[in-house]
Design brief:
Monomer. Keywords: Metal-binding, Oxidoreductase. It catalyses: 4 Cu(+) + O2 + 4 H(+) = 4 Cu(2+) + 2 H2O. Belongs to the multicopper oxidase family. The protein contains 4 helices and 31 strands. By secondary structure, the chain is mainly β. Among the domains are: 130 residues, Cupredoxins -  blue copper proteins (Immunoglobulin-like, Sandwich), CATH 2.60.40; 125 residues, Cupredoxins -  blue copper proteins (Immunoglobulin-like), CATH 2.60.40.420. It has a 7-stranded mixed sheet with strand order 12-11-10-14-19-16-17, with no helix packed on it. Strands 1, 2, 3, 5 and 7 form a 5-stranded mixed sheet that branches.
């Protein structure tokens, strides 16, 4: 359980609560670009407890090149299944220029190797735990059986291995895998236990979207480094996580050709909500969100990503001259610089129709509406869903397999202006409205994580198919879930 001071200081790094890399300063007024996103900071709060943020560990931007995580190769392939091996271990890697930092990661990397898999082709992964502590793995956004979902108490002990099976029956999407060990997931993810899992949809090849070297996953997070280069982790230290990382390197550069690129943006930070925009009056074309391709592309001035959310965007560098540079910015400063280094032929495109959504299932006479509330208690130092902290022995929601429900998710934290988000395991959902208004641009597709600003409500419609068993739903601002803002649903016949 988080104590009061930790919850006070950790609770503020949320949409709008984080401005300029700090949770302790008052919210700033929304810039025009942030207002365009529909979720920019728009109210002020009083300062909370905690130390003044420091920026001494931040290196100068654009000194190092952004790496692209390596793609994992199967150790065996059979008629209908590919088999992979993943070792989870500690190692020392270069994150800051010229400095080695100890991380906990898949394959010993801060960003684990990418699994590129195909829709309809089964995958089995053997995870071997080479750490001195129990861990597990959750495939975020994956439609998987309960025993492969990474339940918090379903652990791999040190020196042991476990096989997880991923059927990949869902449409193509940008998923990711990460640790979900009870009470430790926030620290483990912060220290590097995460990686991309990209499902290629059967429909994608004919669309001729940018592919191969021009389809680039970019993992975004923040960190606080000690003078010796080690990672500092404590829930109350979130104000000092001012070093922004793209694929594990601080504010790097990335060489591109003057052509279109598909970037898969993923926010793995514990609290920071990114507000991403390009300079030079450039825009991004969003083609996908958590659950895969949108029905149609959407032009975006700003892309907002709370922890756990993904957005696929196409950026066209074709009009730029060789030698020009384009910076991807957050409200706290630059994140990544694209350097146009060459010209290239480009036969890719962004079609007007991407992946039409099926009609929403009818609710019928047995319609089920659920009220889900999110709140922290500063006095008790706890975080709640529906006024309860997580208890693995309690089932909070029972739903019938194949049923469709509407959930109204409300953030009750208006007095301290804390934003939250909600992630559902197993299923994707559709956002119906925000406080009665239509979903924001880029929210028309399938989602598994949704941002819920302070005092706001979001209605989602979700169909529970595929598998039986117990699954989680929780705030993906991970110190909040560690503090108790997590619950479980049981899918029954």
């Amino acid at each position: 359980m988080l104590n009061r001071r930790r919850l006070l200081t950790a609770g503020g790094l949320t949409l709008g609560g984080m401005v300029g890399g700090t949770l302790l300063l008052p919210r700033q007024e929304a810039s025009p670009a942030m207002a365009d996103a529909g979720l920019g900071p728009h109210r002020r709060t009083h300062m909370t407890h905690g130390a003044t943020p420091t920026r001494g560990s931040d290196p100068a931007p654009f000194r190092v090149r952004m790496p692209v995580p390596r793609v994992l190769t199967p150790v065996a392939s059979y008629r209908d299944v590919d088999v992979y091996h993943q070792d989870i271990r500690a190692s020392r890697v270069e994150m800051l220029p010229g400095v080695r930092t100890e991380v906990l990661g898949y394959g010993g990397a801060f960003v684990g190797p990418t699994l590129r898999v195909r829709q309809g082709r089964r995958v089995v992964v053997r995870y071997r735990n080479g750490l001195d502590r129990a861990v597990n793995t959750h495939l975020h956004g994956g439609h998987v059986a309960a025993d492969s979902d990474g339940y918090p108490m379903d652990l791999i002990e040190p020196g042991r291995s476990r096989f997880y099976e991923y059927p990949n029956t869902q449409p193509g999407a940008t998923l990711w895998y990460h640790d979900h060990t009870h009470h430790m997931e926030a620290e483990h993810v912060y220290r590097g236990m995460h990686g991309f899992y990209l499902v290629e949809g059967r429909d994608e090849r004919r669309l001729r979207l940018p592919s191969r070297d021009h389809d680039v996953p970019i993992m975004l997070t923040d960190a606080h480094f000690a003078p010796d280069g080690s990672l500092i982790y404590a829930p109350e230290d979130t104000p000092n996580r001012t070093t922004l990382l793209a694929n594990g390197r601080p504010r790097p550069y990335f060489p591109v050709a003057a052509r279109k690129y598909r970037f898969r943006l993923l926010n793995v930070s514990n609290f920071r909500t990114f507000h991403l925009s390009l300079d030079r009056d450039m825009t991004m074309t969003q083609i996908g969100s958590d659950g895969g391709l949108l029905p149609a592309p959407v032009r975006r001035e700003v892309v907002v990503l709370s922890p756990g959310e993904r957005a696929e965007v196409v950026v066209d560098f074709g009009p730029r001259r060789v030698g020009e540079q384009v910076v991807l910015n957050d409200v706290s400063g630059p994140v990544l610089r694209f350097d146009v280094v060459t010209r290239a032929a480009d036969d890719s495109r962004v079609p007007d129709v991407l992946r039409p959504l099926p009609p929403l299932p009818a609710l019928g006479s047995g319609r089920t509406d659920r009220e889900i509330t999110l709140k922290v208690d500063m006095v008790r130092g706890a975080a709640y869903i529906n006024d309860q902290v997580f208890d693995p022995n309690r089932v909070d929601v029972r739903v019938k397999r194949g049923s469709t429900e509407i959930w109204r998710v409300t953030n009750l934290d208006t007095d301290v202006s804390l934003d939250h988000n909600l992630h559902l395991h197993l299923v994707q959902f559709r956002i119906l409205d925000r406080d009665g208004a239509p979903p924001l641009p880029g929210e028309s597709g399938l989602k598994d994580t949704v941002l819920v600003p302070a005092g706001a409500s979001v209605r989602i419609q979700v169909t529970f198919g595929d598998f039986l068993g117990r699954y989680l739903y929780h705030c993906h601002m991970l110190e909040h879930s560690v503090g108790g803002m997590m619950a479980q649903m049981e899918i029954v016949p």
